[in-house]
Amino acid sequence: MASRPPNRLSPRLALFLLAAVAVLAVVVALVWPPVAPVGMGAGGGEAPPAVAGGGPVPSASFDATEEPPPRVAIVFDDLGRDLAAADRLLATGEAITFSVLPFLPHSQETAERVHAAGEGVLLHLPMEPQAYPRLRPGRGGLLVAMDEATLRGQLDEDLAAVPFIDGVNNHMGSRLTEEATPMAVVMEALAARHLFFLDSRTTPHSVAVEAAERAGVPWLVRDLFLDNDQHPEAIAAQFDKLIDLALTRGHAIAIGHPHPATLDALEAALPRLHEAGIAVVPLADLLPRGEAMWSPSSP
Ligand SMILES: [Zn+2]
């Protein structure tokens, strides 16, 4: 038998090819040309810190070449007293960031567990508050009255007391973070260790960001505290604010404390964050890219 003449199929084949080319053309037209990069590397770390009461402002600089899904970092401070709160936070399976005070009974073990679970650890660095000495920052606290050598020595001990840290945020510090000289000492030490700084922003007059900029330390600023008021409705309202800020600005940083009410509110809020399409990411993921002098994951 003679094979089917090839020209019997060719009209169909031609039609198919024509359709394929048309589809390809439409696809190319939709994705081409690529969006031009916006503001790459411009003005980076000069972004103003977030200040309470203002509208959405950047808490760090961003490489805006593409729009990632909204992201939040949720930092839990004051950890190390016991293991129960850290274990409950780890059980959420979320990328919570754990900030551990030095020299507490379970500081070391908390950091080890968090690191083993693959989550981020910060040193929660105690600093002098305005209400000192009525209110004390605890063991390892940096005080305004310390001379530079004493400050440096205390800082070395504090940084060595919590393993696996990739950054630092201040515990209290409404007095010390207003002082340029001790903050310069702090930032020099962080720069030498390739650590970043999160300003907990316990005073509107903090000079932490300026000091970090000068020392070349990557920095971030806390947007909101979750539990200054520990009533369940108040904490839930703070989570609402966190969601709004993440949706309008693309990213947001919250700090909470291991109070039972805050842990309850977190567990209730996580499904709402997911429904809103917001990802909980390690704090280090929100660091500015491009301007940073090193990658936070580098050794
Ligand atoms: Zn604290």
What does this structure look like?
The protein is of the alpha/beta class. The protein has one domain (64-286): TIM Barrel. Helix content is 36%, strand content 15%. Strands 1, 2, 3, 4, 5, 6, 7, 8 and 9 form a nine-stranded parallel β-sheet that branches. Strand 4 (165-172), helix 5 (180-192) and strand 5 form a beta-alpha-beta unit. The longest helix has 22 residues, at 10-31. The protein is globular and about 80 Å long. It binds zinc ion.
Helix content: 25-40%
Shape: globular
* Gyration radius, rounded: 25 Å
Largest sheet: 9 strands, parallel
Bound ligands, named by name, code or SMILES: zinc ion
CATH superfamily: Glycoside hydrolase/deacetylase
Structural class: alpha/beta
> What is the number of helices?
8
State which percent range the strand residues make up: 15-25%
Query: Regions with pLDDT < 50 over 5+ consecutive residues?
Result: 1-9, 26-58, 291-299
Features:
TIM Barrel; 299 residues; binds zinc ion; globular; nine-stranded parallel β-sheet; single chain; disordered C terminus; 15% strand; alpha/beta; disordered N terminus
Please provide a brief summary of the model:
The protein has helices spanning 10-31, 84-91, 107-116, 148-161, 180-192, 208-215, 232-249, 260-275; strands at residues 71-79, 97-100, 121-127, 165-172, 196-199, 219-221, 224-225, 251-256, 279-280.
